Amino acid sequence: MTEKELSILLESEEIEVIEMPLKKDTKGLYGDNLIAINKNLSTVNEKKCVLMEELGHHYMNYGDITDQSKLENKRQERKARAWGYKRLVGIIDLINAYKYGVRNRYELAEYLDVTEEFIEDALKYYKEKYGPYYIIDNYIVYFEPLIVFESSKF
Asked: Does the pTM exceed 0.85?
């Protein structure tokens, strides 16, 4: 998702985004159509990743889930993160990156304008959800290590 597409989405949902000081380990918060992003985040890509997770909370969650010792809150947190992963590091995005010539995680993060940490988390999520690989059309995507194969035999 490009910055312009993200901006359009935020506007259409009437969500305000502000940067402000937050606790050191808090990257972002969502509540009542307001996303607060920690102003101390170091890169635009890191802010984009946090913003997508917080948007995931807008679409996928309800209530206060800050107490992560509760199982239901952990589930809601996972749903919000998964929403962001699918939009910024979708499986089709992995295939398109392969077609473009991307061959490692650093290049992939650059290609998708996300952080390497976000790539790692997304791949871990896909591996937990689908197992070691995913087959779509003429492609097989292995998640660890990240490898994309193209074949007409699938």
From this structure: yes
